[in-house]
């Protein structure tokens, strides 16, 4: 689960991290009070969307002006005019896709005088099975680009979960960022604070880009992006309240109600698969035959008929979907349950696009018989390769 920058900063502040003071604007009537709570002389007005690259982003509407989604105002009046220009407008950044995202929340922050910009993140490192910091002196820019062109400028500091963060980790971080003296001490403290916040709230990712040194020698988190591990959210009901459903895909919200692992994608072939590995293989083979999947969907090992029906409804409700591939290996999940679920779903929502079903495993003969006798217009397939070719051909035949 992702949260907004202003929420992430409030959370980090609670753990004692150095964050500029600021106030959120959730509706237009909040603007005056929020701007008045910042003393200036510089007000930073920041679009709050779940996507990065806001500073270099562009609004769709001309009324929003040319200045991007993060703006520095020199007076309260200027800050107010930026709020009016940006509020409710659609911001397109490198990460939003061409459609952009509507800015429904803004954040007004005390401006900082920047001496240096760094990159700092914490994540779960699969290699070590622990939390690692990733740091670079090349802050404020696209870290993927730095990783590609200057991998030597990216430093990874792995932390053993048994010891937790230690002073030497902080010193290594300071060294990686070229900090000495008091700033090195601040970096040491920051590493402990961020690690504590990360572990205590079950984050999966924390990114500070940029982490800055101010002109008066203070380390400060100028941007903050936080993702929580959704599987641990039950332990943090107060964090679940930070969820902003308007930032999420409606289909993904619907899927989460049924505990389905669903990710919306850009292609045309809707996929219903059990098991994440098989789902990945299914996406790959669709691409191999030259089409693009419309979603990743893992209905899980022991899905009920109800869950299968819900999954099918979500796929068919997507106007992008021009064909559906059901690819199930019946292990714990039995093929006849899937077959009944598919039929129930088709009867409930109708079927306007070609449907290929490939079943294998437990009760496969029973499953195939149920589908064959249902009278539905289903293209049966014998294996994954055959299934992928059939759905790709069917989708192309319609274009
Ligand atoms: P992003 O573009 O979505 O990553 O948004 P950021 O919060 O990182 O802001 C983009 C850029 O705006 C930063 O990299 C800074 O260069 C600039 N910026 C943000 N806040 C301030 C500030 O308080 N003072 C100054 N001078 N620049 C700022
Ligand atoms: Mn940033």
From TrEMBL:
Pfam families hit by this protein: ATP-grasp_2, Ligase_CoA
Pathway, per record: Carbohydrate metabolism; tricarboxylic acid cycle; succinate from succinyl-CoA (ligase route): step 1/1; One-carbon metabolism; formaldehyde assimilation via serine pathway
Domain ATP-grasp: 9-254
GO cellular component terms listed in the entry, alphabetical order: cytosol; succinate-CoA ligase complex
Protein residues bound to substrate: 274, 331-333
Residues bound to ATP: 46, 53-55, 109, 112, 117
InterPro entries linked to this entry: ATP-grasp, ATP-grasp_succ-CoA_synth-type, ATP_grasp_subdomain_1, Succ-CoA_synthase_bsu_CS, SUCC_ACL_C, Succ_CoA_ligase-like_bsu, Succinyl-CoA_synth-like
EC number, UniProt record: 6.2.1.5
Cofactor note: Binds 1 Mg(2+) ion per subunit.
PROSITE patterns found in the cross-reference section: ATP_GRASP, SUCCINYL_COA_LIG_3
Residues holding Mg(2+): 209, 223
Cofactors named for this entry: Mg(2+)
Molecular functions per Gene Ontology: ATP binding; magnesium ion binding; malate-CoA ligase activity; succinate-CoA ligase (ADP-forming) activity
Reaction catalysed by this enzyme: succinate + ATP + CoA = succinyl-CoA + ADP + phosphate; GTP + succinate + CoA = succinyl-CoA + GDP + phosphate; (S)-malate + ATP + CoA = (S)-malyl-CoA + ADP + phosphate
GO BP, one annotated term: tricarboxylic acid cycle
Protein keywords: ATP-binding, Ligase, Magnesium, Metal-binding, Nucleotide-binding, Tricarboxylic acid cycle
Function (record text): Succinyl-CoA synthetase functions in the citric acid cycle (TCA), coupling the hydrolysis of succinyl-CoA to the synthesis of either ATP or GTP and thus represents the only step of substrate-level phosphorylation in the TCA. The beta subunit provides nucleotide specificity of the enzyme and binds the substrate succinate, while the binding sites for coenzyme A and phosphate are found in the alpha subunit.
Subunit and interaction comment: Heterotetramer of two alpha and two beta subunits.
NCBIfam families per record: PRK00696.1 (NF001913), sucCoAbeta (TIGR01016)
Record family assignment: Belongs to the succinate/malate CoA ligase beta subunit family.
Protein name (record): Succinate--CoA ligase [ADP-forming] subunit beta
Annotated organism of origin: Hansschlegelia beijingensis
């Amino acid at each position: 689960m992702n949260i907004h920058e202003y929420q992430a900063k409030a959370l980090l502040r609670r753990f004692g991290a150095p964050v500029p003071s600021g106030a959120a604007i959730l509706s237009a009537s909040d603007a005056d009070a929020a701007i008045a709570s910042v003393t200036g002389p510089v007000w930073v007005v920041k679009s709050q969307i779940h996507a990065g690259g806001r500073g270099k982003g562009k609004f769709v509407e001309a009324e929003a002006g040319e200045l991007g989604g993060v703006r520095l105002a020199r007076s309260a009046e200027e800050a107010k005019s930026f709020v009016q220009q940006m509020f409710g407008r659609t911001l397109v950044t490198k990460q939003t896709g061409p459609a952009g995202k509507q800015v429904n929340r803004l954040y007004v922050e005390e401006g900082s005088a920047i001496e240096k910009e760094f990159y700092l993140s914490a994540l779960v490192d699969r290699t070590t099975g622990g939390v690692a910091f990733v740091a670079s002196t090349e802050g404020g820019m696209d870290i993927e680009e730095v990783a590609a062109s200057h991998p030597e400028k990216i430093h990874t500091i792995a932390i053993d979960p048994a010891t937790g963060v230690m002073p030497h980790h902080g010193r290594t971080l300071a060294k990686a960022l070229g900090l000495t003296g008091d700033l090195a001490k601040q970096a040491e403290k920051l590493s402990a604070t961020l690690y504590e916040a990360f572990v205590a709230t079950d984050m999966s990712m924390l990114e500070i880009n940029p982490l800055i040194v101010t002109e008066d020698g203070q380390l400060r988190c100028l941007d903050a992006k936080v993702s929580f591990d959704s599987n641990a959210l039950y332990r943090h009901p107060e964090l679940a309240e930070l969820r902003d459903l308007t930032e999420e895909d409606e289909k993904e919200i619907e899927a989460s109600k049924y505990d389905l692992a669903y990710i919306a994608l850009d292609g045309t072939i809707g996929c219903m698969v059990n098991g994440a590995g098989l789902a990945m293989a299914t996406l790959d083979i669709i691409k191999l035959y030259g089409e693009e999947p419309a979603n990743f969907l893992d209905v899980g090992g022991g899905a009920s008929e109800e869950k299968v029906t819900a999954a099918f409804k979500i796929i068919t409700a997507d106007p992008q979907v021009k064909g559906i591939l059901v690819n199930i290996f019946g292990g714990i999940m039995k093929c006849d349950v899937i077959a009944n679920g598919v039929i129930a779903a088709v009867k409930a929502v109708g079927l306007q696009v070609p449907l290929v079903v490939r079943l294998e495993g437990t009760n496969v003969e029973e499953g195939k018989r149920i589908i064959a006798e249902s009278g539905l217009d289903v293209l049966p397939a014998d294996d994954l390769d055959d299934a992928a070719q059939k759905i790709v051909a069917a989708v192309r035949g319609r274009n």
